From TrEMBL:
Keywords: DNA-binding, Transcription, Transcription regulation. The keyword Phosphoprotein does not apply. This is HTH merR-type domain-containing protein. SMART domains: HTH_MERR (SM00422). It comes from the Bacteria. GO terms for molecular function: DNA binding; DNA-binding transcription factor activity. Residues 1-70 form the HTH merR-type domain. InterPro entries: DNA-bd_dom_put_sf, MerR-type_HTH_dom, MerR_fam.
Amino acid sequence: MSYTAKDMLKFFDITKETLRFYEKEGLLHPTIGSNNYRYYSDWDVFQLAEYRRLRALDYSIKDIKDTIEIDTKENLLCTLKRKQQYYYAQKDFYNRLSQHCSMIVKYLSEPFNKFKKSRLPAIFYFPAFTSIKEFFNEPKYANFASMDNETFSLCDFMFSGKIAEPESLIGGTAFFESLVSNGFNSSNMQFLPEQDALTINLEICDDFSLTKDNLAIIPSVLFHDQFYAIQLGKTANKRLVKFWFLV
């Protein structure tokens, strides 16, 4: 029995572009009728179902092509073991991603504009630049280019300095030590050990400056103390930030 392209789109709830993609990759071979319409066999339906299943299992097109060329049970077993290792790694990654999200949710759920005694968690910190003064005279953002997607997804935007010294402000990326993997590359990063601090959640300006209301809440005695701050989230015109003052 033969089926039209419209039938295939209906069977699999896919777009015409997706169907053509599998054809261009050499994975489907429809018959072209005299009317220039494409016709697909039951075998084509079966094959596309298998491809869609493998795609759902996170197989790339190259993986699919390699898989359908497997010629022995031993080679199939090797392929599945490699995929098993990949799934284990993904499981670990999503566990850490879930922990990271839970941590941010916890911080965001805490009251804003109220100080409390807390602990600065151990953090790896990669400055994007070393000082505001030298911002235009030095290489910047090397940490962005050096991160793969998995690493980027676990980082937080961080800045540090002293309120009384705006020129001391330094921006960069940070990683909670508890969330990084064993193979995490911390070279060229600063390490901030866990330590006592005063912490407060504030809504600051989009340009990272503090509002008059922010400054009124912070005791002037803290203006000369080193702080570290992590962005918890962002609205249309405000940044939601957790500050740790080292006192």
